[in-house]
Structure formats: structure tokens, C-alpha cells
Specification:
Shape: globular
Distance between the termini: 20 Å
CATH topology of the largest domain: Rossmann fold
Strand order of the largest sheet: 3-2-1-4-5-6
Strand content: 15-25%
Helix content: 40-55%
Radius of gyration: 21 Å
Number of helices: 16
CATH architecture of the largest domain: 3-Layer(aba) Sandwich
CATH class of the largest domain: Alpha Beta
Length: 386
């Protein structure tokens, strides 16, 4: 049973991070502590509440909005003074900023922040300067900073965002691990995958590349679509399956990419899907040419489903994937390397099958979800004893 005085507050900018990216973890922690989840309002926050977890809504934005941010800090401060948590643990940059500042002024004993990707990596000029300042503020108010990959840990140190004694990578990386019993090719998933291939008019001979994530520039979508479009003019047995939503306001793809999605019949965009397992199970190769990541869940999910990956040589991706072992690694923004990797896996079925055979085993060994949750729980309990 939770200890009444041992309150932990978890804060994210948007509720999707609580309900999806941290799926299952909050319920697990709630078995040991009195957990309160805070995020902007929305259906996903209601989903968290239905799991038996206390929730409160505090409106936050993902962009720079000084007035709204001040309101959020004040509201969080009042909640923290009332709840008196011994830990505030934030995720995402905006929640980290308002959460750490509010926790500092509210006198919270332990202020923790998880870093799961840094938008500033692809920013320049004044925007980068502002984002770097924000990160430094977050880390200065935090007592512990948890990069969710060793690459992020190194990036933070190289850029002098904070001292090494504040940093710790929990487990082998990842914010939530992977539910290997859910992401598995069971009979139901295989049946759904077969039905999807039929409904989408894919043949048995088609080699299906799959991308899952936001359809945005930073995910390498422009390079992926341009490269696939070029290959599809030569090869009639390849398909590209795009699973995920557009984000026109924050990071739109190019007009040329939009035209390819609209006009190339071998490119199929199915939008956001609650259950991505059938889409992975119907695919031969997962391709994720992102510019920057923290520790991408979807690469772990693909691996757990036995799908080999083509990923870029960026932190997180190059920790999950070992080149020529469970996938191929290319340089970001390099269309020539992307084309070469795609051609290799199209033409070399033996290699493709070898990578697929290794994929699930490597994920289970390093990123099984319960292991990650228990490592986080150990961290909380070590603070409780201080």
C-alpha cells in the first residue's frame, strides 16, 4: 500500500506522454507511492485517471509562451504547496521548465527531470540560444537529471548544461522500456497483419518498408520519401507504409514530400493508429531516418516484433541498433546512404532474415519493461531513505 506521506508527482506537457509514452509505468509506481499525474487537459489525461491514478490538469504549451508559462508555474506552485510531495519528476522541456521552477519555490525535497530528446539539436541562431538557456535553467533547478540514452548523457556533458554528478542513465536507457509480451507476433496480430496486407492490395512479393512516428521534417521524412520515390521508379515490388500524424504548425514536411504521398500509389499513409503491432507485423523493414532522438520507443517496438531497422547514427537509435546485427545504421540527412541501405535489404533476403532473427532477442535482453520500471522504483526508494 502507498505511504500517505510519500507523494510523487509526475508532470508532462501533454497528456499523451502520460497515457502512451509512459504506459503502464504510472500504475506500477502507484502500487508503491501515492502518485499524482499532472499534464494539460485532454482525453488522454482522463484515460490516466481511469487507471486509478490521481490527476490534475495544468495547461502547458509546447512552444515559447511566457505569459502562459508563468500562469502554469503559479498553478503548479499552489498544487505542490497543498500536496507536499517528496518527489517531483518531470518529462519534456516545457513541463521540465515550469515543473522544476515551481518545485524549487515550493520547497520540494527531490526534483527530478528526464531528458528524452532535445529539440535544440536541430535549432540554430536565437532559437537555439533560447532553448539552450531553458535546458540549463531546468538542470540547475533539478537535483537529478536522467538522460534516457548514453548519447544524450554525453551531449549534455559536452555542452556544459550541467555537471556529471547530477546525471544518471537508468538501466540501459529508455524512459519506459518495452512490453515484450504485448509487442509480439501472436496469432491475432498475424491475422490482423494478413488482413491489412490484403485490404491495402499488397502482394506476397511486395517488400514493405514501414515508418511509424510524426510525419515531420525532423524525423527524416523528406529524405525517406525522396529516396523511396526514386527507388519505386525502378522497382515495382516495394511499398512504403507511413503510420503517424502530420504536424503542420510545428515541423511541416516539404511540398515535394506531400506531393509524393499524394501521387505515388506505392506510398500509403494511414495516419495515427492506437495499435501499431499489425502494421509492424505486415512489414519487412522498419526505416527511421530521424535527425534527433532521445531513446525512440518505436525502434524498440519494431525490434520486439522481429522487424529489422534502418536507423540514423544518432543517440538512442545507435544504442538500440547494432550495425549489421539487428539493423543498419546510416548518417542522418544522407539520401545516398539511405538508398544504399534500402537496396541492400531489398536485394539480400538472407541478411534481412538474419537481422530479423536477432531483433527481438536483443530487445528482450536489454529493454524489457519491468526491468526499467524496477530501476526507476529503486531510484525513488533510494531517495525516500535519505
Amino acid at each position: 500500500m502507498p505511504i500517505p506521506s510519500s507523494i510523487i508527482i509526475r508532470i508532462t506537457t501533454v497528456p499523451l506522454s502520460l497515457s502512451w509514452l509512459l504506459k503502464g509505468q504510472l500504475t506500477f509506481i502507484n502500487n508503491y507511492f501515492d502518485l499524482l499525474a499532472i499534464s494539460s487537459s485532454g482525453e488522454d489525461l482522463e484515460l490516466v485517471k481511469k487507471q486509478g491514478i490521481r490527476t490534475k490538469a495544468v495547461e502547458m504549451t509546447r512552444t515559447i509562451t511566457p505569459l502562459m508559462d508563468i500562469f502554469a508555474i503559479v498553478k503548479l506552485f499552489l498544487i505542490l504547496k497543498k500536496e507536499k510531495p517528496f518527489i517531483v519528476h518531470t518529462h519534456t522541456p516545457k513541463a521540465g521548465l515550469v515543473g522544476m521552477v515551481a518545485a524549487k519555490f515550493a520547497g520540494v525535497p527531490f526534483k527530478l527531470h528526464t531528458v528524452a530528446g532535445l529539440p535544440l539539436m536541430e535549432s540554430t541562431g536565437i532559437k537555439r540560444t533560447i532553448l539552450e538557456f531553458v535546458e540549463k535553467v531546468i538542470y540547475s533547478f533539478a537535483d537529478k537529471v536522467y538522460p534516457n540514452s548514453y548519447g544524450l548523457n554525453e551531449f549534455i556533458l559536452q555542452n556544459n548544461f550541467c555537471k556529471a554528478d547530477k546525471l544518471k542513465v537508468i538501466g540501459n536507457g529508455s524512459s519506459n522500456g518495452i512490453d515484450v509480451e504485448y509487442f509480439i507476433r501472436n496469432k491475432d496480430v498475424i491475422k490482423q497483419a494478413q488482413e491489412l496486407r490484403t485490404n491495402l492490395n499488397f502482394t506476397e512479393n511486395d517488400i514493405v518498408f514501414c515508418f511509424i512516428g510524426r510525419i515531420v521534417k525532423d524525423k527524416g521524412i523528406n529524405e525517406l520519401l525522396s529516396t523511396f520515390n526514386k527507388l519505386s521508379l525502378k522497382l515495382d515490388n516495394i511499398k512504403l507504409l507511413l503510420v503517424g500524424p502530420f504536424e503542420e504548425k510545428l515541423d511541416p514536411i516539404s511540398e515535394n514530400s506531400k506531393q509524393i504521398i499524394e501521387n505515388n500509389s506505392s506510398v500509403i499513409h494511414v495516419g495515427f493508429q492506437n495499435d501499431i503491432r499489425p502494421y509492424l507485423a505486415m512489414s519487412d523493414i522498419f526505416v527511421f531516418p530521424s535527425y534527433r532522438e532521445g531513446f525512440p520507443n518505436v525502434v524498440m517496438q519494431a525490434g520486439a516484433m522481429g522487424v529489422p531497422s534502418i536507423v540514423t547514427n544518432i543517440n538512442g537509435c545507435n544504442e538500440i541498433i547494432e550495425d549489421s546485427k539487428n539493423g543498419l545504421i546510416i548518417e542522418p540527412k544522407n539520401k545516398n546512404e539511405l538508398e544504399e541501405a534500402m537496396l541492400i535489404l531489398i536485394e539480400d533476403e538472407v541478411l534481412r532474415n538474419q537481422l530479423a532473427d536477432n531483433s527481438r532477442k536483443m530487445i528482450v535482453e536489454r529493454y524489457e519493461q519491468k526491468y526499467v520500471w524496477n530501476e526507476i522504483l529503486k531510484e525513488y526508494k533510494s531517495l525516500e531513505k535519505r
